[in-house]
Amino acid sequence: MSQLTSLTLKAALAGLADKSFSSEELTQAHVDAVAAAKPLNAFVLETPEKALDMARAADARRARGEAGALEGAPLGIKDLFCTEGVRSTACSNILGNFVPTYESTVTANLWRDGAVMLGKLNMDEFAMGSSNESSAFGPVVNPWRAEGQNAKLTPGGSSGGSATAVAADLCLGATATDTGGSIRQPAAFTGTVGIKPTYGRCSRWGVVAFASSLDQAGPIAKTVEDAAILLKSMSGHDAKDSTSLDIEVPDFPSFVGKSVKGLRIGIPKEYRVDGMPAEIDELWEKGIAWLKDAGCEIVEVSLPHTKYALPAYYIVAPAEASSNLARYDGMRYGLRVEGANLTETYVNTRAAGFGTEVKRRILIGTYVLSAGYYDAYYVKALKVRRRIADDFDQAFQKVDALLTPTAPSAAFGLGENADDPVAMYLNDIFTVTVNLAGLPGMSIPAGVDHKGLPLGLQLIGKALDEGTLFSLGGALEKAADFRAKPARWW
Amino acid sequence: MTDTSKVIEGRTGPWEMVLGLEIHAQVASKAKLFSGAAVGFGGGPNEQVSLVDAAMPGMLPVINRFCVEQAVRTGLGLKAQINLRSTFDRKNYFYPDLPQGYQISQFKDPVVGEGEVIVEHDDGSTFTVRIERLHLEQDAGKSLHDQDPNATYVDLNRAGTALMEIVSKPDMRSAAEAAAYVKKVRTILVYLGTCDGDMEKGNLRADVNVSVCRPGDYEKFRETGSFSHLGTRCEIKNVNSYRYIQQAIEYEARRQIEILEDGGKIIQETRLFDPNKIETRSMRSKEEAHDYRYFPDPDLLPLILDPAWVKKIQDSLPELPDAKKARLQSQYGLSAYDAGVLITEQARADFFEEAAKGRDAKLTSNWVTNELAARLTAAGQDIGDSPLKPADIAELVTLIEEGVISSKIAKDVFDRMWAGEGGARAIVEKQGLQQVSDTGALEAMIDKLIAANPGQAAAVKDKPQAIGWFVGQLMKETGGKANPGTVNQLLKAKLGIG
């Protein structure tokens, strides 16, 4: 059965198509793998019966010749996506045992194409975190360990459950979301591929909101092509989301394997930050060489406002979050801790329901929107955001895509940054700019560090130009020939 | 120059009030502003609530195009600037009837900018109220505190319903002006079909800003635009009838004057009007005021309007009250007052125009605005539901015009028409109410009367007004049916006066 779980999505779909195995067999193999992987804590809810029901239904459709693009493929779903009749908590105590009566558009699109749900994946509470340690269900453990060591490492966050489930072969692919790097950083930490598409490509309807102007769904997958297959199904215009883009979805998989000859690749000099491990710099140089070999032209570019991105992000995102999370008030659903009066009930409920990191961000957000501080913080941050978008616009006059590291380090130990939120926030230094500008960004596993831990390279594309990212990602993947897998210890 | 009627005498001298209004008008729409859920009176509690209205996790607002159209239509009706780009902001505060924890409103860039409303005084003269802005926003749900001693019930049917907030400049100077302004705005909205204007259901309500100042200060404010010339204002929330608006204002102005005359200071605050005690009470002061933390709603893109679409709405506007009034005056020769009364309701003006076709307009207008209006009011009916149709009034007016009945008899005929006895002409015939214009019969009666009262007849020669006694006698004898003109003419001849 381990053979089935080690397949890529693409290979599994081929096996289903030529009847080498059924979706029921494929799904059972993954259900077993999930059940055997409790120490990873990747799933917060397993839905094996539902998965097998869906698999049998998929087999029946395939038998009738009605197979969709993902027919019978078992996937994991980040718990930020509302799933009809299946508990959805955003990994927060405040949602308690909330069971939606509706299905998010992105997951509905996956089911429309025949995918099978294995369960809900662990994540940082409300997607706020870079290490998965803020989850109400406890942290996910990275399947990777440093060579010769048993210390538990973070899979990154917030989509740590998604990245771990894919890296540990618990599913063929997973949904994830990215507000400041939550797809790309965990992908980098786990040796998987993750893409955050252009803002508006995937509907946010039914996805628990963190920061509305930054949140975007995307897949975490085993290969660039798998990511392309998944993103194609997840994308599409949705009239229920006013920020959803009413444009056609390109055939993303067709871009993988296309020649990248003649493409101009920008290397932003501001991304060479102090204190970054030499190994990451070296990997970056390797990536540049690989793309040069593939026929790309390398151009140094400047994104002068990069250093302001992180502070601006940590104003805009908490501001929106402080308002988005106001609905969790104990009145209609989720947790409610009664008090002597209305105010006390609010206070008790929210004090008990939200974790420390979420509270910190609500406080920051409330502060920066307050009378007297609004202009100095929020308005200023919006101006910075505009400058950052302008920087990218300028760069994209000269180049077709940018190449950077995904994160400034490899996976770190669980608990390592627990007392230092700013150190934690620095994980997002290369990724937040992309969210602020609404651009597509992809992380591709490109190598391992001296401890044998995976490292990722990030490709940043022009708005709506995910196609070029898939071509470049394919080229990098081929050149890097990243075949390392975590040794199974769980 | 100060209009003395606006002056309130205080112990320390005269004062004046300055009033600005925020009218909240529920948009006439079958669906809510951002959720598509149904809007309607009579849905059971929490039956008209969508996932968006209940602020379920992951739900998103989508603007209702029709509500925007209604706001634009209203803006055009208020002769206001339509802003082709406007934005939605979140107004953040916690309350159980506000599921999202914020109200989506337009704070910085409203869909409609400055406009003006011409308002009629009772005497038919007019004044102008400048409109500062109109914006779209969501209404909250309803908290019911009286259902259970230990709990508050929440009904979210109203949550998310579209409201237009129409903000005036501080251009009203008396309680009557404020009420007249609300009346006029209501009339315009109803003409436009953008709000049903039902104040009893709370579909139109007002927040009233009241301040007082010394005579002359307001003029300085108008000259300079500086609010420093005006007193500190208090806002009275959610007043929903003309009478309450006036009572609240009168009370509040008096209260402020008393404080100032005692050497006190007015604290800027929000107050509530208690219609039972006819007083206003403090709700919260400026210090306690919420910090609403307004910021642009990231779930909604800026609202961009196509000028061609706005033009289409402009071209589809109905004839509005002011234009209708002017036309009724010029086309039918009505007075400003009569035209003003007719246009307060579109249906009344339409009724009039149908009834007046080809006959005495002034007479028709009187019947529509007096007898008929009084009967409808007494019966609690709108003119649209009137049992008497324009053709019925037309028939009655025709009979008067033709001299078949006198105005006095016409009242009797009208009563019978109202009672359902049939058309005017049929009633007149059946009851024999035609005027007696037969000179032969009248002459005989007059001769007999003069013969029987020689003294009176002689007296008339010295005192011609005394002819009234003879007219009265003849009317009595004919049961009021004698044609007064003919009677006068004959009497004058027989009595030798003229």
Query: What percent of residues of chain B are in strands?
Result: 15-25%
Spatial arrangement of strands, main beta sheet of chain A? 4-6-5-10-11-9-7-8
Low-confidence stretches of chain B: none
Number of domains of chain B: 3
Gyration radius over CA of chain B: 30 Å
Kindly report how far apart the N and C termini of chain B lie.
Answer: 52 Å
Rg of chain A, rounded, reads 21 Å
Gross morphology of chain B is elongated
SSE diagram, text form:
The complex is a heterodimer of chains A (490) and B (498).
Chain A: H1 2-5, H2 9-17, H3 23-35, E1 43-46, H4 48-63, E2 74-78, H5 105-112, E3 116-121, H6 160-167, E4 173-178, H7 184-190, E5 193-196, E6 216-221, H8 224-234, E7 264-268, H9 278-293, E8 297-301, H10 309-324, H11 342-353, H12 356-369, H13 375-398, E9 401-405, H14 421-425, H15 432-437, E10 441-448, E11 454-461, H16 466-480
Helix pairs in contact in A: 3-4, 6-7, 10-12, 10-13
Chain B: E1 8-10, E2 13-26, H1 65-77, E3 85-86, E4 89-92, E5 102-105, E6 115-120, E7 126-138, E8 142-148, E9 151-155, E10 162-168, H2 175-192, E11 204-213, H3 217-224, E12 234-239, H4 242-261, E13 269-274, E14 279-285, E15 295-296, E16 303-304, H5 307-315, H6 321-332, H7 336-343, H8 346-356, H9 361-379, H10 390-401, H11 407-418, H12 424-431, H13 439-452, H14 454-462, H15 467-478, H16 484-495
Parallel strand pairs in B: 12-13
Antiparallel strand pairs in B: 1-2, 2-10, 2-11, 3-16, 4-5, 4-15, 6-7, 7-10, 8-9, 11-12, 13-14
Helix pairs in contact in B: 2-4, 6-7, 7-9, 8-9, 8-10, 10-11, 13-16, 15-16
